[in-house]
Specification:
Layout lengths: L1 E6 L7 E8 L8 H8 L4 H7 L10 E5 L6 E8 L8 H17 L4 E5 L10 H15 L19 E6 L4 H25 L7 H14 L3 E5 L1 H7 L2 H7 L7 E7 L9 E5 L1 E5 L19 H15 L6 E10 L11 E3 L5 E3 L7 H12 L6 E6 L3 H7 L3 E6 L2 H14 L2 E4 L17 E2 L7 H10 L8 E5 L5 E2 L9 E2 L4 H9 L10
Parallel strand pairs: 1-6, 2-4, 5-6, 9-11, 9-14, 10-11, 13-17, 14-18, 15-16
Antiparallel strand pairs: 3-4, 7-8, 8-11, 12-13, 15-18, 19-20
Helix pairs in contact: 3-4, 4-5, 5-9, 8-10, 9-14, 10-13, 12-14
The protein binds ligand BES, manganese (II) ion and zinc ion.
Length: about 500
């Protein structure tokens, strides 16, 4: 979709379709609504007075103007009650408005920005919310469909129109485009099936993003991983014919010498469970077990596009988890990069194995903080449901910041406890620790396992995105399938990044 910004007056602009917002039960029309009402024989007022439209959240109606009007159609969209309004309301409203037009094969829309002094958001934030919402809601993945491609409904262009063309407006649009592109990239990578999105393919994608954005890039291949001693990562990779990779992307703004924030993403391109094989039902969904890595790649692209003034290093282990004659087995003891020996109880707990070595490797960058994202446990879905990420870690301030960022982005994260006493049951009879405990508190025991590999003294947060990386039903901003969860969260966190207070680990 093309996004245009145009200075002008909506009453004299020729348009196929105009998106007009209205608050629920508001006596007064917003400024663009009033203007459009004025040139369409009071069409908006008449529809409201007739009781056909109140303005409830996402309530909408498509109106046809008289021939003499410069505007052909009005998509009147409800914003709900004024007092409940947030940026998320506007993102959702724009998404639904553009989808309604797309479904009717109207691929172009003009959206006049409300400039009312009482409108709850400034011009920049308004434009940002509209563009972001539109781009996220309209997302569709059609690359692999070959039949009846003419039936695919596309949306071509959104023109943001305003009487004043300000820097804030242009910045808001640019921010939204950068964030949406990162999210859509993550969604694409997650949606691609594992026979296409192999570790090799994803490592190449990560390299492309790094090259386009002026980041340093390093790829650790299996022989080098072996030399380094990444036994836990290699144990998972050894079952597959596809080679595994540890990719490192390093974004360093000019003159920024502070230690980096390190992002780690789980990149299991397909999780069969390995020798502890999963049941057949829903195993196809396990192509999305690299959603953590996709979120990190998408976030890195966005962070660079926004030129955020903080050094960010991404460490991403990519591999499949398959059973074979070479696969790692329950009972095996694996020597990890940290030096700790891990007794494998269940080969399906492979995410924590590859993350263990990635977390240890992060120490080389002397990070000021580490954040990992992983579709780590089914237990997290049992605990928090489908749309919420589990948030665990060793630093209250970092967790609070992540919660605040999620509040802004509309992504949902919720804290789970991580007392060291949870480690008791992870102790092994034959090695330093087991990779799995029983069924209780599965999301927490997975995180307490990871904690053993976090470099000493480094603030760390873990997001278990097993439930929220994939959307089964579809919502205003997230069509069915890959969500891109985490891209916005990380971007918003790093946008206002300041060093963490010391001593609260
Ligand atoms: N990738 C899965 C977790 C998962 C489940 C992600 C459902 C998304 C949706 C992970 O590797 C896994 O298999 N975890 C096991 C851990 C168990 C063996 C302790 C699980 O959750 O069953
Ligand atoms: Mn697994
Ligand atoms: Zn997995």
């Amino acid at each position: 979709m093309e996004i245009k910004i145009q200075k002008g007056d909506i009453t004299t602009t020729a348009a196929e379709a105009v998106v007009i917002f209205h608050f629920d039960q508001d006596d007064k029309l917003l400024e663009p609504a009033a203007a459009v009402n004025g040139v369409t024989e009071s069409m908006i007022n008449r529809v409201i007075e007739a009781g056909d439209f109140n303005g409830e959240h996402l309530e909408n109606v498509l109106l046809f103007a008289q021939d003499s009007a410069p505007i052909k159609r009005i998509l009147l969209m409800g914003l709900g009650k004024r007092e409940n309004f947030t940026a998320q309301t506007l993102r959702e409203a724009t998404a639904e408005a553009l989808k309604a037009l797309r479904d009717r094969r109207q691929p172009r829309a003009v959206l006049p920005i409300p400039l009312d002094s009482e409108f709850p958001l400034g011009v920049g934030e308004t434009a940002e919310a509209c563009v972001l919402g539109g781009m996220l809601g309209l997302y569709q993945f059609t690359e692999l469909v070959t039949k009846e491609r003419d039936k695919i409904k596309d949306f071509d262009s959104l023109t943001i129109i305003s009487r004043k063309k300000t820097k804030a407006l242009a910045n808001g649009v640019d921010r939204a485009k950068a964030v949406a592109a990162g999210i859509c990239l993550a969604r694409d990578l997650v949606t691609l099936p594992s026979n296409q999105a192999t570790p090799t393919f994803l490592a190449k994608k990560a390299e492309e993003v790094a090259a386009r954005s002026g980041m340093r890039f390093k790829l650790i291949r299996e022989p080098e991983a072996k030399k380094l001693g990444m036994g836990a990562f290699l144990a998972v990779a050894q079952g597959s014919e596809e080679p595994g990779f540890m990719a490192v992307l390093d974004y360093q703004p000019l003159g920024e010498e502070s230690p980096p924030v390190v992002l780690v993403g789980k990149g299991i391109t397909f999780d069969s469970g390995g020798i502890s094989i999963k049941p057949a039902k829903d195993m196809d969904k396990m192509k999305h077990d690299m959603a953590g890595s996709a979120a990190v790649i998408g976030a890195m692209q966005t962070i660079a596009a926004l030129k955020l003034p903080v050094r960010v290093v991404a460490i991403i282990p990519f591999t499949e988890n398959l059973p074979s004659g070479k696969a790692y087995k329950p009972g095996d003891v694996i020597h990890s990069l940290s030096g700790l020996n891990i007794e494998v109880i269940n080969t399906d707990a492979e995410g924590r194995m590859i993350l263990a070595d990635a977390l240890t490797y992060a120490d080389r960058y002397k990070p000021q903080a580490i954040i990992d994202l992983a579709t780590l446990t089914g237990a997290c879905i049992v605990a928090l449901g489908d749309n919420v990420a589990g948030l665990l870690g060793n630093n209250d301030e970092l967790q609070a910041r992540l919660q605040a960022a999620a509040e802004e982005s509309g992504e949902k994260v919720w804290p789970l406890p991580l007392w060291d006493s949870y480690f008791e049951s992870m102790k092994s009879e034959v090695a330093d620790l087991k990779n799995v405990d029983g069924r209780k508190a599965g999301a927490i025991t997975a995180a307490i396992f990871l904690k053993q590999f976090v470099p000493e003294g480094v603030p760390w947060a873990h997001l278990d995105i097993a439930g929220c990386a994939w959307e089964d039903k579809g919502s205003s901003l997230v069509p069915k399938g890959a969500t891109g969860m985490g891209v916005q969260l990380l971007t918003r966190l790093l946008q206002s990044w300041k060093p963490l207070k010391k001593d609260n680990i």
